[in-house]
Each structure stands twice: as C-alpha cells, then as structure tokens.
Amino acid sequence: MIEIDLRATFISPQKRVWRLFPGSAYRFLDAFKEGNIAFLDLPRLEFPDFPLTADRELMRRVLMSEEIANQLQELGPDHTPTVDVADYQDARMGAAQREAG
Q: How much is the pTM?
C-alpha cells in the first residue's frame, strides 16, 4: 500500500525560499550529492575585491543580479539585460531579506 504524508510545514509569505534544481537532464545532481553543494543562479553577480562582510555592497550586487535574472526569464536568453548600478545605490535591506540571510 502507498502511504502519503500530507503534513506540510507552513512557510510565511515573508520568508524567502530557494528551490534547488540540478540543471537540465539533472547534469549537476552528482555534484550536488557528492560535494554536498548547490549552485545559485545569480547571473552576472560580480564579487568585489574586498571581503564580503560589507553586507550592503553585497546586497546591491544580489539585487542587480536578481533583476537581470528576471529580465532573462521574462524576455528570453537572447535579451541583453539592462541594469543601472545607480538604481541600487540607496538600496536598503528589509526585514524579509534580513530573516532570509
């Protein structure tokens, strides 16, 4: 007999959840399992030449990468994303991002 467990954990709308997917044809599944790692899809995320402890700078870069990902998803992989770093200069981390981080 098949048993289905319907107990589910409630996740509030304010909580950010990452879904991990090992790529088309599951090509990264072995790396995920063997290395106990996963790869985040943050296109054009550039790491600074200084330690990532500068949370505000990292947050700006992640927000820019998320916008690029949104544009690519909406307009297709041949689209050249347009982002302006100036749009993120005054970005502040909200409560939801602090909880997720």
A: 0.48
